[in-house]
Design brief:
Elements: H1 3-27, E1 34-36, E2 53-55, H2 61-67, E3 71-74, H3 77-86, E4 90-93, H4 99-112, E5 116-117, H5 125-135, H6 149-165
Helix pairs in contact: 1-5, 3-4
Length: about 170
Amino acid sequence: MSEAMSKQTSGALIELCAAAYPLAKERLPKLRLLLVCGPRLAAEGLRLPPGVEVRGYVPRLYEHFAASDLAIVQGGGTTTLELTALRRPFLYFPLGQHFEQQHHVAPRLARHGAGIRLDFSRTTPAALANLIVEHAGSKATWPPIDTSGARRAAALIGELGRYVTGR
């Protein structure tokens, strides 16, 4: 996907979230919205309602995910898998023309039963606000995923190293 297409899509999703925020806040008065634009999208020029917090690039974003009551994200593999492993509720929008998000990430999330898949072209601010109210603070309904892969891989590599070196 081109960088221009990515910026356009990211900006459109951020603006959809911003438009849904006041509608959801009417029903959840303590609701906060933190928009993370990432490194490629400048916050300047975005139409945002009062009270919305904006950040550019956020290192260790997974820490914010772990503290969130609900995340709304594009359908990227790393982000959605982090949310799945953290067992945090999330809504995700796989990019329409993005092969990996449509044919690998979304089916994997469906197998886990994680997240709620949405179609950007069919989601209005009112519909998104309803989903925010419905799912903010909800508990994960999918089973925990095995997160011990790196530890197991390190043990196997260590065994291979001992075998090769004879130690």
